[in-house]
Every structure is written in structure tokens, then in C-alpha cells.
Specification:
about 350 residues; alpha/beta; DNA polymerase, domain 1; TIM Barrel; 2 domains; ten-stranded mixed β-sheet; two-stranded antiparallel sheet; about 20% strand
Length: about 350
């Protein structure tokens, strides 16, 4: 299979140009053609001479994931079922939202096909992890969604990218870092670091690596205030328990005036008591955070349930009483199973696919 240019940064394309006995600026032109001008075929890159285009076409590819299905929600969200060349399937979700008078169009991208973490509240966790996605397949999710949104005009284009789709990003560290660098390169897509978020369930050894590699926003899927509960609902906690994870946050090279986003999925009778709400500020004391409270989005693969609205409100009130910035997130795309924890379905499992854990 020919290497994909969707997996290269501008600097790498400059070096590629030199390797091909071309001036370095041809690499910059190539990068801009692909990512800034959204040229889908080499023949469309008219800033490059035809012999260069022919040379590139013979050695590289620009293929994007195939859109198998697209679902539209009543709230404007869109879910895309995508397929790679080898049959691996994954999903991306587009979430337009107006909050506090400001509109954001967020794209939730996957970093793996399936997931191996086994979180009790997540549909994706019920699917085996077939493989990591390549940087070209991660960036390709944005490219195909951008194409789909083109007819809606520039105001509909993706403003924020979050690595919160299928899979654990820090278990696909190199490809996630590479794809984020491509997203943030000012010569192409040009997303500011504050508009790119990487979410993790707590792969502690990779957290510091992430801080050194990228200036992106970081979200932590916490979901419990005791090891006993987190062990039960998030098996990763048995390897890196709360004390280890919190210590990693305290030592993370957080950029000035940044905060972690703490994702807390509220589960009826499991982690939603006032005692939990009182423990959470103590657990995170001294760490700059904002807390997103997410009542569980129901799906057929879990016996867990969402708390009643009154208990959700009480939990939020208790956090705010302790001085925490706590927001109850409204589920988006629930009518198309596109909300947090709902990604994946039986159609995403390729026939005979192996559970790859490398």
C-alpha cells in the first residue's frame, strides 16, 4: 500500500520534496494544496507542475476513509460510520452547538477501531479493539466531514476537534500526536491548540509524554471518587489507581492559564451521591479544572442507568458550593446514538476481525 500524504506534516513534506530532488517550497505547496485548499486529487494541485503531480501520484495516495453511513439528528448533530481500506470501521460525530451566545462546531474523532478498556458505561467498550487508526485515518475523518459540510457554508465548518470518539487516544500515542500536529499546522488546517482536545481514561505513563509533545487541551475521564467504584466501572483504574492519576495531573506541564476538563459520567446509585460530590473537590484540590457532568446516555450494552434530574442538580450544586466550575452537559445526538458513550454498533465489527492489542 502506498504511503498516505494525509499522515505528513508540512515539515515532512518539505523534506520529502528534497528527497525527490525538488525545491523545499514544493513540499509547502503540496501541504497547502491538500489541507488548506482541500484538493482531493493530485491532478487538482495546479500550483505544482504536471511532472511533479505525476511523480507524486505514482508513489503516494490521498485516500480518505469511506463514508458507509451518515445519520442526521434532530439537533443538527451528524454521525458518520467510516471504513478504512482494510475494512476497519470507526465513527466520527459532528456536534454543532450554541452556548453562552457562542457557536462551536465540534468534531469528535476516533483514534481506534473499537476499544480495549472495558468501561462499564460505554457502548464502544463492548466492542473488541480491532486496531489503532493511522494518522491519515484520523485526519481523514475531518477531511470527509469537511467535504460533507461544504454545502452548508463556512459557518458550518468544524471549529474544534476532540479525540473523544472510539478508543483510548493515549494507547495510540504516536498516531494521535502526529494527527494533532497536522491539524494544528498553520500552513494547512490551522487549528489553534486550544481548539484541539485529547481525552484519556488515565494512561498515566503517557500523560507527561502528551504534555511534552503537544500544547493541546486535556480531558480526563474520571467518573469516580474512590478506587472501589472506579475499579468496578473502569478497569484501567486497577493498573493506575486514582492516587497515581491525580499525582500525574499535579505534575503535568499544563500551559499557563489552562485547565483540565474532568469528565464525570453520572451513574444512578453508583457515583452520584452527595458524598461523592463532597469528595471530588478534595480529590482535585489545587489542580486547575472544570468539571463536565454527563448523566449516562443509555444503550443496550449496560445495566447502568442515569440518575434522576434532581440528583444531578444536587450533585452540581454541591460542587459549586465547594467553588468548582461544574457544568451539566446536555446530550447531543441521542436520537442517532451519537452521544458520549454510545458510539459503535454491531456493523462496526468486521467479519473475522482479530482483537489486536498491540
Amino acid at each position: 500500500m502506498a504511503p498516505s500524504l494525509l499522515a505528513m506534516t508540512c515539515a515532512e513534506m518539505e523534506r520529502l520534496a528534497v528527497e525527490l530532488d525538488l525545491p523545499g517550497y514544493r513540499g509547502r505547496q503540496l501541504f497547502a494544496a491538500i489541507f488548506a485548499k482541500n484538493r482531493r486529487q493530485f491532478a487538482e494541485m495546479t500550483t505544482l507542475p504536471r511532472p511533479i503531480r505525476d511523480q507524486l501520484a505514482s508513489r503516494f495516495e490521498l485516500d480518505r476513509p469511506t463514508v458507509e453511513a451518515r445519520q442526521l439528528s434532530a439537533d443538527g448533530s451528524r454521525k458518520y460510520r467510516l471504513q478504512a481500506k482494510d475494512g476497519a470501521r470507526f465513527e466520527a460525530v459532528y456536534l454543532p452547538e450554541v452556548a453562552a451566545g457562542r457557536k462551536t462546531n465540534t468534531l469528535c474523532v476516533s483514534s481506534q477501531s473499537g476499544c480495549s478498556l472495558g468501561c462499564a458505561f460505554c457502548f464502544t467498550a463492548s466492542l473488541k479493539r480491532h486496531r489503532n487508526l493511522h494518522a491519515s485515518e484520523i485526519v481523514g475523518q475531518l477531511m470527509v466531514v469537511r467535504d460533507d459540510l461544504e454545502a452548508l457554508g463556512p459557518e458550518a465548518q468544524v471549529s474544534n476537534v476532540v479525540f473523544m470518539g472510539m478508543g483510548e487516544p493515549l494507547l495510540n500515542f504516536a498516531e494521535v500526536v502526529q494527527s494533532a500536529r497536522i491539524l494544528m499546522d498553520g500552513s494547512g488546517l490551522g487549528y489553534a491548540p486550544r481548539r484541539v482536545t485529547v481525552s484519556t481514561a488515565g494512561v498515566v505513563p503517557r500523560l507527561a509524554d502528551l504534555g511534552r509533545a503537544l500544547p493541546v487541551q486535556v480531558a480526563i475521564s474520571l467518573n469516580a471518587t474512590t478506587d472501589a467504584v472506579r475499579d468496578r466501572i473502569m478497569p484501567i483504574n486497577r493498573k493506575w489507581p486514582l492516587a497515581t492519576l491525580i499525582d500525574a495531573l499535579r505534575h503535568y506541564p499544563l500551559p499557563h492559564r489552562r485547565r483540565f476538563t474532568i469528565e464525570y459520567v453520572l451513574l444512578d446509585g453508583v457515583n452520584d451521591s452527595l458524598d461523592d460530590a463532597r469528595r471530588l473537590p478534595k480529590l482535585l484540590a489545587g489542580i486547575p479544572v472544570k468539571v463536565n457532568l454527563l448523566p449516562l446516555n443509555a444503550h443496550p450494552r449496560t445495566s447502568l442507568a442515569s440518575p434522576p434530574a434532581a440528583r444531578v442538580a444536587a450533585f452540581q450544586t454541591e460542587l459549586r458550593r465547594a467553588g468548582m466550575n461544574a457544568i451539566v452537559r446536555t446530550a447531543r445526538g441521542r436520537d442517532i446514538a451519537a452521544a458520549c458513550g454510545q458510539l459503535g454498533d454491531e456493523a462496526l465489527t468486521p467479519a473475522g476481525a482479530a482483537d489486536v492489542r498491540g
